[in-house]
User: Which sequence fits this backbone?
């Protein structure tokens, strides 16, 4: 953490917090610290600065732990949270479901990732209006908790599309606070954003403009946000400085790229469970080449087209039959949303179809695992020959950055142009249009054929770019923008 960040109290707000709880068979509560850029970023300042992380309780165990904690602060209940103070909000179940599943994940996520299959969806009816009111209530609960917890002049870093309304809800009541909003997703172009019904789009934009600083992972998403503000609010946008003059205030829009936490990754990858997975995977794949993907089972990750490209490769280039295995790790995600469940089924079907068409007694072309295992993912990064990262749209995509960092022999990266990571890695990855299955199949072929020296040289440059923006710096930049 650079020294110039002042020592004001720091508050973070995000739907998913840095810790989660589970109840064991004997009824005891167990807790697990999460990973990710925000956790590493905040941990780096938590030792020297007063911090408070406000998040939602996401399970019964979370609710139980939160309700037992003195003043609702989990750190005060004795959990080791790396110096951060954490407050989990117990949002009523129906309110949470409507805010998180219906509005945030089935609507805003779809708009920003351009996922709608428009003849059927979206379908904004009276039920959606009610869900939107719950999204407002959920945002208000966060705003209230932050207002209660914030000292004079505190810095507040609000995260993501779940909490777009929070900055405005706080602004009028506490002008002393310095508020940032950061989006981890892409931002929709105006042509897509305008699908949102009534004044929902306006409320979202105005909600975020309650902040002093609004951050994005890529200039593409920042500029899309500026375009939406100019189009729907008629706000006065300065395109050179990325500022927005609206409602008597000037708000700054910034780009803060996020890279891999190389040190944390290497340390974790040195553990015994990763070594065991490495041997097991090596045994499974044998002498064959390995094409790897690691994702949440998520529509925006474009897993079905990625597999279709692998199928096309085997169909059109028989030399690869029996010579390459596609390991696809697709971790369960957002299972309460019907589209996610259907998508995971489509992923399973596609893998099965390819295996039915090409599999032999001693070769399974696609090995799909729909189960979360971080150690296994790290081990697979170490030995992959090709890493396929082909999202339809992605705020950044850290798999594309983490894979090369852990690669032992250099990995050839096939990367979608629509991932924020393509801004940083584009010159050494094989870039593909995520909708173009044939182009992706060709890129897989080129990646598999890449000579060792070229692959290793590219990998070295990918690593250099991937580690240039560690999470500590990314988070520090958000805070410094508020100075
Ligand atoms: O990338 C956006 C994001 O909300 C992250 O902040 C989060 O880690 C990820 O998607 C997973 O989402 P969820 O918390 O819904 O599982």
Assistant:
């Amino acid at each position: 953490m650079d020294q110039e960040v002042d020592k004001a109290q720091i508050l973070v707000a995000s739907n998913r917090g840095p810790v989660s709880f589970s109840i064991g068979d004997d009824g005891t509560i167990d807790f697990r610290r999460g990973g990710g850029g925000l956790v590493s970023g905040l941990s780096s300042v938590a030792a020297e600065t007063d911090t408070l992380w406000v998040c939602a309780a996401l399970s019964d165990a979370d609710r139980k732990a939160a309700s037992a904690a003195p003043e609702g602060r989990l750190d005060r209940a004795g959990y080791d949270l790396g110096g951060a103070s954490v407050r989990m909000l117990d949002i009523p179940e129906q309110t949470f479901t409507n805010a998180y599943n219906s509005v945030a994940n089935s609507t805003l996520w779809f708009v920003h990732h351009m996922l709608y299959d428009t003849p059927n969806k979206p379908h904004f009816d009276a039920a959606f209006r009610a869900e939107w009111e719950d999204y407002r209530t959920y945002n208000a609960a966060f705003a209230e908790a932050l207002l209660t917890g914030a000292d004079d002049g505190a810095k507040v870093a609000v995260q993501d599309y779940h909490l777009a309304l929070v900055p405005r809800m706080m602004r009028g009541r506490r002008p002393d606070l310095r508020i940032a909003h950061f989006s981890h997703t892409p931002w929709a172009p105006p042509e897509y954003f305008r699908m949102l019904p009534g004044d929902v789009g306006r409320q979202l934009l105005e909600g975020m403009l309650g902040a002093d600083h609004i951050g994005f992972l890529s200039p593409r998403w920042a500029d899309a946000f500026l375009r939406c503000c100019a189009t729907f609010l008629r706000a006065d946008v300065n395109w050179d400085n990325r500022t927005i003059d609206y409602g008597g205030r000037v708000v700054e829009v910034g780009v803060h790229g996020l890279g891999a936490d190389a040190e944390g990754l290497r340390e974790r990858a040195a553990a015994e469970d990763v070594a065991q997975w490495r041997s097991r995977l090596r045994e499974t794949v044998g002498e064959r080449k390995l094409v790897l993907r690691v994702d949440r089972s998520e529509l925006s990750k474009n897993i079905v087209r990625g597999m279709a490209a692998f199928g096309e490769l085997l169909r059109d280039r028989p030399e690869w039959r029996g010579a390459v295995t596609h390991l696809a790790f697709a971790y369960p995600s957002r299972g309460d949303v019907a589209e996610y469940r259907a998508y995971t089924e489509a992923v399973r079907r596609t893998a099965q179809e390819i295996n039915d068409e090409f599999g032999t007694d001693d070769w399974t072309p696609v090995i799909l695992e729909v189960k979360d295992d971080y150690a296994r993912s790290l081990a697979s990064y170490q030995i992959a020959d090709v890493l396929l990262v082909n999202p339809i749209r992605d705020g950044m995509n850290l798999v594309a950055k983490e894979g090369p960092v852990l690669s032992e022999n250099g990995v050839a990266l096939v990367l979608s142009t629509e991932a924020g990571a393509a801004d940083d890695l584009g010159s050494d990855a094989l870039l593909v249009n995520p909708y173009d299955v044939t182009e992706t199949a060709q890129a897989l072929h080129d990646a598999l054929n890449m000579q060792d020296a070229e692959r290793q040289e590219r990998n070295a440059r990918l690593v250099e770019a991937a580690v240039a923006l560690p999470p500590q710096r990314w988070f520090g930049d958000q805070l410094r923008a508020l100075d």
About this structure: The pocket of 6-O-phosphono-beta-D-fructofuranose is lined by residues 16, 36, 160, 184-185, 333-334, 395 (CB under 6 Å). The first strand starts at residue 10 and ends at 13. DSSP finds 18 helices and 17 strands in the chain.
